[in-house]
Amino acid sequence: MRWLLRLSGVARQRFSRLPHWLQDIYGLVSYINFIELIPTVASIAIAPRHFFRRLPQTLAGHRSHYQTPVKFFVNFAALFVAIFFIRHGDMSEFVTHSEALWYLPAMIPLTPPIMIMLGIATWILYQLPRLAPNGDAFPSPNNGPFKLLLSPRTYASLIPSRFVWGLFYVSVYFLAAWQVAQVIIAVGFLGVVYLVSALGEGHEIVKAITVLLGIALAAFSIHGLVLYPYLEMLRASLRRPTRAVFETDVHEIRQSVKEFLAVPTDDPALDGHAEALHEIISDELAQLGRLMSQQDADFDLTVADLSSRLEIHRNAFQVQSLREKLQHVSADVRQPLNQLLSQLDPPISTVIRQAA
Known about the structure:
Blueprint: H1 2-16, H2 20-29, H3 37-46, H4 48-53, H5 55-59, H6 69-88, H7 94-97, H8 103-131, H9 144-150, H10 152-156, H11 160-199, H12 204-236, H13 243-262, H14 270-292, H15 299-316, H16 319-326, H17 331-341, H18 348-355
């Protein structure tokens, strides 16, 4: 990801030094420059939380590696036409297929209901393996994202302009990601059918486990490739975090703390896990700071949000266990993480007084 951003930055610096007439030509050509799609698409797929949190800066016209919503949308439409030409080799046929271009703008308003239906289907797929005998062996899904997706409070708390511009990215990305998800699901389905048929008579338990693994693969593919970027766009478009966001965060925090505490003290990867935990704690404290800065007429709700967030700290972060484990981490990683841990659980009265 870093080398893609670096390559994009070098290209932008090169073109900024050209004569004005070449810059004007590049401005026109950039709308059919498919290479510029790569950093934006890669960021949405790999790091959607980072991408959509930077959306206000992108919309404000700040220099960025990422394309603006309209440019991204138009560039993808041009790519759509180019793919058609490559497949058919004759643009005269494009007139008879031009109605396909209406799918792109139509996907903008259709994306939210499609995501809601996919979210319900994915939640059901996650639950099916747990209904089977010994289904407890399958990890329980994080219900926070599904509550965020389905809760009316989520959509009532959105910043409309940011949500609409975010749909320009997500709707186009969905068309590409859905194709990949379909391929993964199809390959998984064929693999399940082959394994079940190869087992022949008997082996009913093995067949059942194989089918359940196929269902889990389908759910994971839809969730990871399609739903996750949309959910992060929803989070970034909220005026303030909702309870569903808190539940999502507490699940992620508990999972990260559990993974860190499970790493052996002599494992060379311990420092890497500590750095990942540092990023999660920093993000949590930054969200708390944003809540404390929202000093508006609706302060009672802000206090309730602060109380919920501090409850997450007390329940999810095992501060004492983390401090003990950090004794085995290198000093340059341990010191900043210890400083963050000292900020995790202030008394609620102190936090409310600071916010007031």
